[in-house]
Backbone:
């Protein structure tokens, strides 16, 4: 099958030929490419992912096709997203190699990325959360990832020259941004053929979202921030399905939605998905009592924000005399003034994160794409009850986020909605 | 003199040859190019501007050189600014032809724009304000210009696809943005070789600006918004020296600083410069009593904002079912909800405008580039007294802008500082 401009959609067979004709990939496989074991594992929504295992090496090959996999050719989507994913893996990997898989090879024509295979026991974090597994290092690792990637791609580290150049490049990933605009900030708040929810249980709840003027006004502000504000190179899809974990490793994959946007979009995605995991636990509680696991999730939420804040601020202090142009050392020239600037910055970022986190929660309950945390609760009544509590919490958080000053206050409210 | 890549700096003589070899320009001059009268009038800071008058037609030719004219080759500045100026004149002219001179010709290699000659009695607005001339249509016209140009280049009118494409292009004007970042948001708040002020009178005042932590924290927020927020295609230098007027015409020139930035940056530049004009009037009061003129300025400030708000909102209503993606009609689907959205939007824009306006005032008093309104007050004591009142007002406005809800409240405070 000949694609346009040299592009061909690969399959298990043609991928072998592709690998054999690409010396770098052959060498990564230790020059042993005769008995390759190839498995397509794309459980994601958009792309094809192949695990390639040979006798002397392994890798993962991800290919983007010019449409959305889980919907089909009827929803076209530029395969150039692979380019932005590759650039972001490399850029984020440069600043945080411990938590981003290494990119071995990128082929723009083929929209194909070869990267490190995150071997078992790595699993997708969301699955671990559903199984009730505690990851003691998760907050430490993910706060590290977020602090390093967001700080180093912001104006606290970049000159405005570097920043605008990078912003311009990532404007090219507009199709993926538009998908987010639609499914996160628009569809849940209107009638849309794509929306779905646990029905009939949540019919009234979905309708209430569409009728909630205060909520819609707040969502408009977040959407504007998403579309207008180039604060840092964000991952753009940092939910618990974009993170692979073991008990001592945390790896962030799948940044195909990356662009220069508000930092709170990433932080909120992660925290919001942990909160979804929290509210889903009662639906999984027949296997085991989940109370202590719920505590661990809440602790991880608190630790993530608190550690992020600490690490981000440390990076700022470390680089305060560097090239970053947002706060020139000659102006913010006393420790007390710098501290005030940091406090202001963190306060705004906290509120942004809560807002985006809440919006991401809402869309997972009444929008097109749901989360396995809830979907795997077979009993619809039980599922609806979990979802409703998450939704009510998220609505309150979105509307009242500016009233919260610490993550502990947010956690108290989660407790309230957990009754 | 051969420049790089075909660029040559023109002079009165070589400009004639350039015109003669450019058929379009010849035709604009009615094919009469033998007795051209050429006068270089670049009173601006950056570029060379030639008025070309023939027996059957006229034009203005503006050329950017690869440095800042008023400083010299020691401060290089990309001549590509002419490209962004030309694109913006055309784009703004498309939406507001009544208040933007027509571009006849643009030569990117030569960084040269030929445009309509704004004939006498057109003068630079700032000079009219110094002379105490009332322009009864100014608020009407400039509110029209700002509403039309800002609305039509925002996400209220653009799809996000068009918006990101345009944002990416204007990221290229980063050198000019950097100049603003330096002279507006940084230098006044630190020791800089470029800063100057009426000395010794304002030595303490300049020092106080550098020591004012609250002010510096607020300026950081504005700088971040300037660098990160691509809200609309702003003129970028909309002071009263970038506007030419007669009693019945208002024309906006010189958008070489244009980029996708916060709308409040333009609105604030205009309002802030009118406020500077207001505070300078007492320095010109020996020629005539300026009390009624000061009233007119304040009335123009109020009218400009109020008319802008009305016109911008009308455009929004008119296009609410159009391609703009910020507020989808299916979501913001009741008149009362839309009105609330507009009220929120205008409130934020008002505060942004006051903040940027104040920052622009401050930098004109203690930064590198001053305004003729004050500079033309010969008596240093008198000048310093005018400047000090303007500076104190601006500092208060920058710090407390969120406390104001109407332009009339701002005007009351101006009155207070006028005592
Ligand atoms: N580097 C990797 N190592 C191991 N498994 C991976 C790797 N990258 C992706 N996967 C697996 O493939 C799945 C889909 O990958 P992902 O990048 O999320 O694709 P999509 O963009 O389609 O969501 C992941 O959920 C994970 O199970
Ligand atoms: N289209 C025009 N018609 C008449 N005079 C103009 C025109 N454009 C510029 N000028 C004159 O030239 C001066 C400098 O032009 P401007 O575009 O402001 O240049 P600069 O970028 O150097 O500030 C203006 O102040 C005005 O007096
Ligand atoms: Mg994925
Ligand atoms: Mg993906
Ligand atoms: Mg000028
Ligand atoms: Mg100028
Ligand atoms: Mg200029």
Residues:
């Amino acid at each position: 099958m000949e694609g346009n401009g040299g592009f061909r959609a690969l399959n298990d067979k043609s991928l072998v030929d592709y690998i054999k004709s690409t010396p770098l990939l052959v060498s990564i496989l230790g020059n042993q490419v005769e008995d390759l074991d190839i498995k397509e594992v794309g459980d994601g929504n958009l792309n094809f992912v192949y695990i390639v295992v040979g006798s002397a090496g392994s890798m993962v090959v991800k290919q983007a096709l010019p449409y959305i996999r889980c919907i089909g050719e009827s929803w076209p989507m530029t395969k150039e997203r692979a380019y932005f994913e590759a650039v972001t893996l490399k850029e984020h990997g440069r600043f945080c190699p411990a938590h981003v898989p290494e990119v071995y090879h990128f082929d723009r024509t083929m929209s194909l990325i070869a990267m490190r295979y995150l071997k078992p026991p790595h699993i997708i974090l969301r699955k671990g959360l559903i199984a009730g597994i505690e990851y003691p290092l998760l907050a430490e690792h993910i706060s590290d990832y977020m602090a390093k990637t967001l700080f180093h791609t912001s104006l606290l580290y970049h000159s405005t020259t570097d920043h605008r150049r990078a912003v311009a490049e990532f404007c090219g990933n507009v199709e993926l941004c538009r998908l987010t605009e639609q499914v996160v900030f628009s569809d849940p708040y209107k009638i849309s053929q794509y929306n779905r929810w646990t029905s009939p249980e949540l019919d009234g709840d979905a309708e209430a979202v569409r009728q909630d003027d205060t909520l819609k006004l707040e969502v408009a502000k977040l959407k504007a921030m998403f579309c207008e504000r180039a604060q840092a190179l964000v991952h753009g899809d940092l939910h618990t399905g974009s993170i692979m974990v073991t008990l001592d490793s945390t790896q962030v994959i799948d940044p195909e939605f990356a662009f220069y946007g508000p930092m709170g979009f990433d932080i909120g995605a992660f925290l919001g998905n942990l909160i979804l995991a929290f509210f889903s636990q009662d639906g999984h509680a027949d296997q085991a009592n989940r109370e202590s696991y719920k505590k661990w999730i809440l602790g991880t939420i608190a630790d993530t924000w608190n550690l992020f804040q600490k690490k981000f601020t440390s990076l700022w202090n470390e680089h305060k005399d560097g090239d970053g142009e947002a706060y020139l050392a000659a102006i913010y020239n006393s420790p007390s003034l710098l501290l005030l600037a940091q406090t202001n910055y963190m306060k705004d970022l906290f509120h942004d994160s809560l807002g985006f986190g809440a919006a991401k929660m809402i869309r997972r309950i009444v929008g097109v794409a749901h989360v396995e945390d809830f979907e795997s609760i077979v009993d619809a009544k039980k599922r609806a009850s979990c979802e409703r509590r998450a939704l009510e919490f998220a609505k309150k958080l979105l509307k009242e986020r500016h009233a919260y000053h610490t993550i502990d206050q947010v956690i108290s409210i989660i407790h309230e909605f957990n009754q």
Notes: Residues 332 and 338 of chain B are 6 Å apart (CA to CA).
